[in-house]
Amino acid sequence: MKERRIVAGVIGAGRIGKMHAENLSRHFPGVFLKAVAEHRLDRRWAREWNIPTAATREAVVLEDPEIEAVVIAASTPAHLDLVTAAARAGKHVFCEKPLGFHEARILETAALLEAAGRILQVGFNRRFDPDTRRLAERLRAGEIGEAQMVTIVNRDPRRPPLDFVKASGGLFMDFAVHDFDMVRFLTGEEVVEVYAAGGALIDPAIGAAGDVDTALITLRLTSGAFALVDNSRETHYGYDQRIEVYGTEGSLRMENRRPTAVVAETGRHLTYDRPYHSYVERYRESYVAQLEAFFRCVREGEAAAVSGTDAAAAVAVARAARSSWEQKAPVALGSGRSAR
């Protein structure tokens, strides 16, 4: 049976917005990408990808009655306003993370879409990564008993531009928020307490901007289990993405993905490929899979795989982590105050 064609638009065509638009063009024969809006539009790129309408105004996407679904990949401070505008225009919405900086407004916006009978899915793409999903399946099957400790390593190859750091909400909100969502996804538990330590060990300008580039974040979960998140803005050796879940009967690990699995061992050296250099390469499959899930929900009326509630929960942890770092003390979720 032939799929019903969905007409879509993309708002935001920076690096990740371009990637979403290109994925729609490459991998989604049942989706027609009609329009892209971006304030600093790369018109040459739009022509190369044969996008029928490319403009600098979001209204081109939001006011088109033919466009049923919108992918929002604009800068983080604009997310909630754009999601709200799309909801009022009757569109289904996929929005990049974080959905916003405050959980209360995230939940209000999600309720607006629900009341309108529209889908809202949030871009926590790592839930759709094949390795992560396999680890989660084996954990939930009880292979290692009850989880006691989750350790997540999330380190970027190169620090982002300072302007991005200032606008994004910082390391806890923009970067570690993926890890907070992953802890919830893997364990099925909520975070009840956060202790975050961090510093600007890579670039003093990041510290001067009021943020950190290196952090260790300890989370206590509802069961009493722990999670440890290890973040860095710059490795120089690649995109370092590892997970270990230690349980009552053993452990499960997800190692780095590399361009090839070839290992050379000689009397002089042992060599293998470095990890992939960027999130686009490492999580290529997951970016396609999350949009497949979104458009399936649009066609079939299913609930989104990553909801506004998920987005709000991860942001609540991020805000608590920031408070903990500022106070140099543990913070209980929902209190904003030291847990001591």
Indicate the proportion of strand residues: 15-25%
Structurally, how many domains make up the residues? Answer: 2
The major sheet is characterized as: 7 strands, mixed
Distance N terminus to C terminus? 60 Å
Global shape: globular
Could you write a compact summary of the structure shown?
The chain has helices spanning 15-27, 43-48, 59-62, 79-88, 103-115, 130-140, 162-168, 170-175, 177-187, 204-208, 279-282, 284-300, 308-327, and strands at 6-11, 31-37, 53-55, 69-72, 92-96, 120-123, 147-155, 191-199, 214-221, 226-232, 240-247, 250-254, 263-265, 270-272, 331-332.
Task: Give your account of this protein's structure.
The chain has 340 residues and is of the alpha/beta class. The chain has two domains: 6-125 and 285-304, Rossmann fold (3-Layer(aba) Sandwich), CATH 3.40.50; 127-282 and 315-332, Dihydrodipicolinate Reductase, domain 2 (2-Layer Sandwich). It has 13 helices and 15 strands. Strands 12-11-7-10-9-8-15 form a seven-stranded mixed beta sheet. A six-stranded parallel beta sheet has the order 3-2-1-4-5-6, with helices on both faces. Helix 1 links the parallel strand 1 and strand 2 (31-37).
